[in-house]
């Protein structure tokens, strides 16, 4: 099946009791047993729930994986992967990544004895030189947040396989509609389902998808033991959201390209970052490993003063000034004070993230209205 068909049908079957086409919300904590241990596959909803099962099967199918696991947030999914590590282990991460990921790595897991190195993954030699006998995991975001760097997944996974290192790819920005990291060697795919998969800014959720049975068993044990699972109602909402993933992403990509082109030609904009531009350093890699360039656009003003940047953000009307991304509505954010404030300024600057950068999550509204909003905000 192609992804548009998977989005609607994978993991979803008519309810055997009533024939309901939509997966029911099994709002229950526990399940009746005939005798101790004799049940219908469900004992307690932290461990398994039919609504969550349907979503997890759907997520696995979208990523061409074998096992999907849903969590209460993207950070709960990140935390579960980090629990695969032990004191003394080392992780190599991209140096441009979501602030919450940086925070959990440096503030939660580094004090427990796990070492993290943040490198520019544009250069494979930088990754290779960071590898040591203690390196157990390489953490990739692509496109990165918020500089939209495109990392060559295949090159990273080929390097990692030479050393027996696990590769995690945060696929939140691209979604399974635009790229499938498991197909090009990744061991685990992570999603903040909150974003494009849910797609309507009404659910907080995370997910992990894998192919390997043993890895899935370890993750499932942690999912059940630590309990960071989503509610049946949230699973239902995400199943509903995913049914339009392919349609939404087509529009997100179309609108983002037009918005990026408008910004590129505006006299008050210094530079625009979008993988769809031929001059973007990762453009050719994006063409090779993605099926589109995504709905995220970042840009820097000619006047980089805080007053100028804040003034533009405050004047926006259709673009809502808010954290998060990937919903049907357009959002604008200031990473340095919002999503990436947990990363020290010197680290942000080292990664190439200036305080003057504005990040747009381009929604699916009429693009002429979005451009008009940006035009009036730029003044």
Task: Explain what this protein looks like in three dimensions.
The relative contact order is 0.14. The longest helix has 20 residues. α3 runs parallel beside α4 and α12 packs across α14. β5, α7 and β6 form a beta-alpha-beta unit. This protein has 379 residues and is of the alpha/beta class. It has 14 helices and 12 strands. The protein has 2 domains: 240 residues, Type I PLP-dependent aspartate aminotransferase-like (Major domain) (Aspartate Aminotransferase, domain 2), CATH 3.40.640.10; 133 residues, Aspartate Aminotransferase, domain 1 (Alpha-Beta Complex), CATH 3.90.1150.10. It has a 7-stranded mixed sheet, sandwiched between helices. A 5-stranded mixed sheet has the order 8-9-12-11-10, with helices on one face. The model has no long low-confidence stretch (mean pLDDT 97).
Order of helices and strands: HHEHEHEHEHEHEEHHHEHEHEEHEH
The CATH class of the largest domain, by name, is Alpha Beta
Query: Which class do the helix and strand fractions yield?
Result: alpha/beta
The CATH level-2 architecture of the largest domain is identified as 3-Layer(aba) Sandwich
Number of beta-strand segments: 12
User: Per the principal axes of the C-alpha atoms, what is the gross shape?
Assistant: globular
Flag low-confidence runs: none
Per CATH, what is the topology of the largest domain?
Answer: Aspartate Aminotransferase, domain 2
Name the CATH superfamily classification of the largest domain. Type I PLP-dependent aspartate aminotransferase-like (Major domain)
Strand content: 15-25%
The rounded distance between the terminal residues' Cα atoms is 48 Å
Overall structural domain count = 2
Number of helices: 14
Radius of gyration: 21 Å
Average pLDDT score: 97
Give the neighbour order of strands across the main sheet. Answer: 1-7-6-5-4-2-3
Largest sheet descriptor: 7 strands, mixed
């Amino acid at each position: 099946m192609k992804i548009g068909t998977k989005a609607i049908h994978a993991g979803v079957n008519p309810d055997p009791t009533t024939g309901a086409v939509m997966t029911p919300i099994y709002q229950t904590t526990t399940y009746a047993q005939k005798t101790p241990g004799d049940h219908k596959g469900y004992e307690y909803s932290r461990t398994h729930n039919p609504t969550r099962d349907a979503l997890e099967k759907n997520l696995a199918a979208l990523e061409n994986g074998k096992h999907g696991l849903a969590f209460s947030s993207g950070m709960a999914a990140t935390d579960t992967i980090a629990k695969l590590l032990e004191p003394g282990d080392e992780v190599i991460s991209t140096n441009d990544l979501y602030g919450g990921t940086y925070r959990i790595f440096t503030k939660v897991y580094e004090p427990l004895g796990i070492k993290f190195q943040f490198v520019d993954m544009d250069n494979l030699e930088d990754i290779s030189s960071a590898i040591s006998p203690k390196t157990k995991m390489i953490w990739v975001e692509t496109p990165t947040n918020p500089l939209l760097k495109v990392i060559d997944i295949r090159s990273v996974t080929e390097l990692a396989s030479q050393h027996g290192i696990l590769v995690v790819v945060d696929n939140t920005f691209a979604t399974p509609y635009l790229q499938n990291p498991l197909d090009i060697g990744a061991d685990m795919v992570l999603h903040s389902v909150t974003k494009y998969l849910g797609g309507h800014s009404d659910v907080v959720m995370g997910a992990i998808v894998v192919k390997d049975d043993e890895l899935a068993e370890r993750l499932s044990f942690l999912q059940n033991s630590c309990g960071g699972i989503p509610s049946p109602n949230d699973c239902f909402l995400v199943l509903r959201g995913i049914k339009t993933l392919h349609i939404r992403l087509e529009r997100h990509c179309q609108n983002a390209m037009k918005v990026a082109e408008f910004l590129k030609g505006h006299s008050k904009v210094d530079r625009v970052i979008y993988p769809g531009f031929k001059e973007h350093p990762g453009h050719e890699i994006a063409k090779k490993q993605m099926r589109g360039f995504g709905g995220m656009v970042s840009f820097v003003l000619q006047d980089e003063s805080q007053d100028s940047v804040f003034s533009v953000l405050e004047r926006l009307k259709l673009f809502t000034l808010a954290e998060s991304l990937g919903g049907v509505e357009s959002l604008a954010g200031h990473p340095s004070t919002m999503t990436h404030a947990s990363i020290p300024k010197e680290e942000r600057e080292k990664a190439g993230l200036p305080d003057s950068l504005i990040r747009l999550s381009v929604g699916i509204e009429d693009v002429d209205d979005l451009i008009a909003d940006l035009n009036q905000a730029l003044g």
